[in-house]
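Stimulator of interferon genes protein, pasting as requested.
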Amino acid sequence: MTLRLQDQDALIPRPRGTLPKVCAVALAAMTMGGVVLLSPERLFGWVAMAILILTLGPLLHGLCLLAEEMLHHSNTRYRGRRLLSHLLPACGFGGKTLLAAGLAGLLLYLAGHPLPHKGQCWKLLILTSVLYTLFKSLGVLGPSEVEVSDICEVRKMNVAHGLAWSFYLGYLRLVLPRLEDSIKAFCETRKALCGRGSRKLLILVPLNANISHKLEEEDNNIRFYGNLPNNEIDRAGVQGRVYKHSVYSVLDEHGEAHQCVVEYATPLLTLHSMSQESSAGFGEPERRQQVLLFYRTLQEILEHSLECRNRYKLILLNDEDEDDPRFLSKAILRHLQQQEREEFCLTPPPQQEMVHPLARTSGAMPTAPPIGGNGRYPEPMSREPTLMFSLDKPQPLKEPVENTDHYRGKI
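Structure tokens follow.
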């Protein structure tokens, strides 16, 4: 069955926040406070030395990466791009790193050496930077899974992001604006889909990405009803490519049929097939995580799409309840009932008429006195507003004229 709104919020991963940054700032502040209490005279020297250790290591590792990129990949991966604008930033020689290292070196020079012997400071810097480069190259100091996941989500590099955007740009944005016209044409031939809450495309998103090509095989209470008229769109060199939707009749517990346009999210077939291929390196836990990211990304895309607004409904299916033979029909009916409760008919307000109070007692309309004596009667207040344009040329503003009589008391 489908997941409730609270269950979805607890299941769908939210974007990662700034708590690690806050914890890092708090930890750094506590450490700096401890250094100030223990040896305040060497604070700037220790801070400068720590910054140099943290920046020289990545810079040395960047030199190793730069050697590989320049010798073997400069033409194939960078296509002759400029060294300073592409190769150096790609290998870790960013402006922030270089600036931090330069300021730390200047601060260490001005503050003096924090260690008792000058040679110990430089030996520690060189040894730490070289060991960092070695451990980084061997993968000991590599990014964690959380960091990789955060980078992929922020930069939209997940498989789910690409599939969601492809599903929207290549399919939903093309067919959803035409859905209402297709349903109207279908209603002219069959008495279906004419009620409220059934004129949206229901998109099923199962967590296990297991999709059946026929819904009636998943649930006996779901029956194929027909296909909406085909939409032919010229796409990628194909003249009149056909896009179609299927209408299904869903039976409730009382045996009453409810027609709706429903289909699975087809990109989930790709995720399921990837999890079945060992060469893809895509297991079941990764597949489930990508399905949740696909749902979240597609929901965010559709919420900001003017072409698709109020024309769709995403239904997240929980695979834990698929043992129920009627879980799919129950999920669809629950969303149809929810739409019927949420939607209501907006009718134009009735046109008000100006009725005299005495008209309720007498059958004749009382006559109101004309305005200004020109024989015109006041118009009803319910008249629709109209625009009035003047053909006269605009006149300059008149200067203020003093008309106060200061000598009223003297005359």
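Note for the archive: Confidence is low (pLDDT under 50) at residues 344-384, 406-411.
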